[in-house]
Write a structure and sequence with these properties.
The protein is mostly beta strands. The protein is built from 1 helix and 6 strands, in the order ββββαββ.
């Protein structure tokens, strides 16, 4: 039986990324994003909005980069996989579980923070410069024209200042 586990989401961070480090020094960033869906209610013909909150985690340089450049309210596009966490509740002794997205890649959406609505911030002054297109991935293309795949260890990433889109 074949299986495929891929998640693509775009939304706004609901809180700053919480960074922790494993004993070996690898970073783990935990955060959540909110995605909105607008639809027309068939009974009342009103436009309604449904918000879904999704827990996420990123590892290694991906987590560190996201933590450095993203904060609460900022829009982001993430690509990853679903993971089921299971544990025993210490208070009730019951089994607990939740689905979360493990982020493999992400894209910055909009302009830098502080540039009005383009950066996902409410209000503020209009943008000082035109919005730049978000990069395909958070690293330059690999030799041969293919986009780099950074789903591996932190040593696989070599992000340089000039590759950051703002």
């Amino acid at each position: 039986m074949a299986s495929y586990n891929k998640v693509l989401l775009m939304g706004n961070l609901t809180r700053d990324i919480e960074m922790r480090f494993t004993p070996s020094g690898m970073g783990v960033g935990k955060f959540a994003i909110a995605t909105n869906r607008k639809f027309r209610d068939s009974k009342t013909n009103e436009v309604r909005e449904e918000v879904t909150f999704v827990d996420c985690e990123a590892w290694g340089k991906t987590a560190e980069t996201m933590s450095q450049y993203l904060s609460k309210g900022r829009p982001v596009f993430i690509e990853g996989r679903l993971k089921l966490d299971q544990w025993d509740d210490k208070q009730s002794g019951q089994k607990r579980s939740k689905l979360l997205v493990v982020v493999d890649r992400f894209q910055f959406i909009g302009g830098p923070a502080g540039e009005g609505r383009q950066g996902g911030q409410a209000g503020g002054a209009p943008a000082q410069r035109p919005a730049q297109a978000a990069p395909q991935r958070h690293a330059p293309p690999a030799p041969g024209g293919e986009a780099a795949d950074f789903g591996g260890t932190p040593d696989d990433l070599d992000i340089q200042e000039e590759h950051i889109p703002f």
